[in-house]
Design a protein that fits this description.
Shape: elongated
Keywords: Isomerase
Number of strands: 4
Largest sheet: 2 strands, parallel
Strand order of the largest sheet: 1-2
Order of helices and strands: EHEEE
Pfam families: Tautomerase
Strand content: 25-35%
CATH topology: Macrophage Migration Inhibitory Factor
Radius of gyration: 14 Å
Number of domains: 1
CATH architecture: 2-Layer Sandwich
Distance between the termini: 38 Å
EC number: 5.3.2.-
Protein name: Tautomerase
Number of helices: 1
Helix content: 25-40%
Family: Belongs to the 4-oxalocrotonate tautomerase family.
CATH superfamily: Macrophage Migration Inhibitory Factor
């Protein structure tokens, strides 16, 4: 059973995350030729102050 870990900046709605989960699940099942109920997904939301790009945290951008 595959496990997909997704890290995102905080701020997405539950509806957005739900749609992403459905689409990632379908893609994994299709590409690996497995049942969708075999796919596990963990979403970790990261605070903007804890994620930096180019030396600047996202809360400062």
């Amino acid at each position: 059973m595959p496990l997909v870990r997704i890290e995102l900046l905080e701020g997405r709605t539950d509806e957005m995350k739900s749609k992403m989960i459905q689409e990632v699940t379908a893609a994994m099942a299709r590409s690996l030729q497995i049942e969708e109920d075999a796919v596990d997904i963990i979403i970790q939301e990261i605070k903007r102050k804890d994620w930096a790009t180019g030396g600047v945290t996202w809360d400062k951008q």
